[in-house]
Every structure is written in C-alpha cells, then in structure tokens.
UniProtKB/TrEMBL annotation:
The keyword Oxidoreductase applies. GO terms for cellular component: cytoplasm. The keyword Oxidoreductase applies. This is Aryl-alcohol dehydrogenase-like predicted oxidoreductase. Keywords: Oxidoreductase. Residues 13-314 form the NADP-dependent oxidoreductase domain. It comes from the Bacteria.
Amino acid sequence: MTINLGDNLRVSPLGLGGMALTPVYGPADPVESLATLNHAVDVGVSFIDTANVYGMGANEELIAKLLKDRRGEVQLATKFGIASNPATGGREVRGDPAYVKESVAASLKRLNTEVIDLYYMHRLDTRVPIEETVGAMAELVAEGKVRHLGLSEVTAAELERAVGVHPIAAVQSEWSIWSRDVEQSVVPAAARLGVGFVPYSPLGRGFLTGTLQVSALAEGDFRRRIPRFADGAIDANQAVVEVIRRVAGELTINGAAATPAQVALAWLLAQGERLGLPVVPIPGTRRSARVDENLGAVSLNLSEAQLAALDQAADAVVGSRSNSPNWVSQDRE
C-alpha cells in the first residue's frame, strides 16, 4: 500500500525516521540498526528518512547498507542545510547554491546511490532568499540527481514562495498531539498547494509513548535542553500522556490492547483526513518490535469522542518545542 504524498511521490503510509539509528538519544548498535531498517522494509515501511547531519554522515552510510540490495524497495529521503561551524563548535544553516550542490554530491556518495527520491532543505538560511535555494535544488532534479523536493520547518509564506519556483512534494516539521503550531498556517497552506506533510517527532521525542523517564535521560541527551522537557513543564505535560493512555485503554488492534504510541500516530493520521492533506509520520526507533507497533496505528480508528479528548489534552501543553531562535517555523510565523 502506498499513498501519493505530493508531486506524485508515492510512499508507504508510515515512514521510519533514521536519526535515532545513530547515537543521538544514546548509544546505538549498528548491527541492530541495520536489522531494524531491513525489518521495516520487510513489513511495508519503505519510506526511510535521514539527513547528512545525522551522525555527521554516519546515518547515510548506515542506510547505504540497506540500499545496497534493496534500493528499488525504498523511497529515500535525506536533507541538507545544517552545517557544523568549526569556529564556534556549534551549528549553522546554509542554503547558498554552492552548498546545495556540495551537499547532494556528498550525500549521494555516502548513500552509494545515483538518485535521491526526496531531497529536503533541512532548515531555512535566513540570509538567502528561499527562491535561490529552491532554484538550486530544482537544478538537481533537472540533472537527475533528485526526484522530488521537500522543505523542513518553513512558514506558510515561505512554502508559497518555494512552490512558485518548483513543485514541492512535502513539508517536514514537528507535529504531534503536543506540537500543533503548524496547524495554524503551514498545514492549511500545504493542503491548498497540494503539498504532503511529513511529521517528525510524531511521538513527542518519545514522551507521548508513556515509557520515557525524563529523569533518566543521559546528560548529553539534547532533550534536556528543550523547554517542554524542563522540570516544571514535564510534570504538567504528563497530563497529556494520561489522556493518551486512557484512550489506548479503550481500543484494541487485532485483539491486542492498543498502545499510547499507536494512539498518538493514529491521531496524526486522522488530522490529515480532517485537514485535507496526506500525512505520513516518520517515528524513529532502533528496534524492530517498535516498527511493528507503530505500523499498527495505520489500522486504528479513533472515535469522534476520542479525537475530541486528545484535542483538548493538547491545549494544556506547557513549554516551547525549541530553544533556538528561528530554528522552527513557529518563530517566523
């Protein structure tokens, strides 16, 4: 089963976010990560998402091992735009045409493939007009290096300007029960322009599963720096998880109890139907069992009462989803 995400790009109804397959949330076993990738494709989760910055290229190199024998089974997405800054030890954003061309060449080499199915601008370089960046990306399509274009964390106005240069298949931004700011302007614009939506962190960076112990996060885990994970906010936000748990307790999938993760993903899929655009979440995991669990959400139907309860719970979320100015579209809307 596939769906038309946008610009006639057909993908599986659920994707797999690759970031967690390398050490971002803690140590990752490359053997287990590759096994999880293969299992995902085996069970029909063939839309695989990565980026050049994940593991500083190591994530793309890992996915190359999957592609070696299964390239024709995978809809491959990767990104450019977040660059390390040796001068500060931090990160910078680049969207100049020279960097676009440099980045795609490096990604194609690491992925050991001739073409990328969906190539995203990972973040907007506010120093460069988006028309200039997308124009350089469009050249990659003309050259056969990329099939479709995507944008991550753009505003409605920025999306409109980009579509004026080249068709955009998808917008990728954080979207979940506790991250709904994109519904105000970006999602309606995408629906109107025929652009699909790919929610990243659809499980709230693990929080909405009800299994995350925030106090146990490793010192280097970047979630510790996100405002809504701060001590005061996380206690208040636990109320959202309790509503998700209650809804999960009312549902079964193939005779088994539904899980909070499945409910959170099913809510997003229902939002796509309610708001009139294709929505393909890309939950990340290192474990094959979690792939199977997440996939169950595709067949889970939420009642109007359950959707209303989840909507109401979302209104009580405390804390921002970002701690960096201009890092997410909400800051520029």
